[in-house]
Protein: Prephenate dehydratase
Amino acid sequence: MKVGYLGPQGSFTEVAAKAVMPDSERSSFPTIPSCMEAAAEHEVDIAVVPLENAIEGSVNMTLDYLIHKHELPITAEVTVPIEQHLLVHPDRTNNLEQITDVYSHPQAIAQCHEFIQRELPNARIHYTNSTSAAALEIQENPERNAAAVANLLAAGTYGLTPARENIHDYGNNHTRFVFVSDSKKEPVLKEAKTHKTTMVITLPSDYSGALHQVLSAFSWRKLNLTKIESRPMKTGIGNYFFVIDVEKEMDDVLLPGVIAEVEALGCGVRVLGSYPCLLSSEIDHTNKKELSPK
Ligand SMILES: O=C(O)C(=O)Cc1ccccc1
Structure:
């Protein structure tokens, strides 16, 4: 199996890909769209991309590409612990006062916003497509008094020094990564304690109470929703998709019953995937070694 992931090497997405498919051939892609396009065009069998972070919420680029751009089913989900560290080039100072520029993924910067505001208030912020891209930027530009926000795997990969560890503002920080693929190769995760089915629902324009009807279609069937989120349809202000995660694998009666019922009410329904979910720590403890290769 060929696995594409948001790279370059040392990204949290690579950690997710390695945790689930340690022996597969991996190809890194510089952006979420390029990674998903590679799966859509069958350059890789599966694409691994970040979907949601515990502090910052959904990775909108991923969600929008799943909704608007590609019919790429979600086939698995793995949740990875996120530890952000301030990495500097070994030839440069780790004296924070002298750091003039900080590089990282927007979500990583946001996860460390309070630290940066407090310790690096005058630093210029530069957004990169991934945390590991930021670490590579620091490695390639030793002359700069700059730092990257990234994990310790990236520190080892690019020979950087952690000037400060665990700079994320909130503990218990995790990110959900999804495996998307339309190739019918073997399932990615065989055993899993939980499953999710993710649907995108559009409401009829002529009845505002429809969302209550949609939620009722799940509740009287005792189907637990773990998430509901509105995302713009991009057709005009106030037009939304509702992205719903149901804590249940697709079956023959209940979920098809919900779909038939809400469609009969005039809603649009699209299933983004029905898939096994695991914590990376449940799969293999090498993941912990990966993230803190001390
Ligand atoms: O940038 C990375 O390392 C990624 O894999 C994307 C990401 C960024 C911030 C938190 C979680 C995942």
Q: What stands out?
A: The mean pLDDT is 92. The first helix runs from residue 12 to 20.
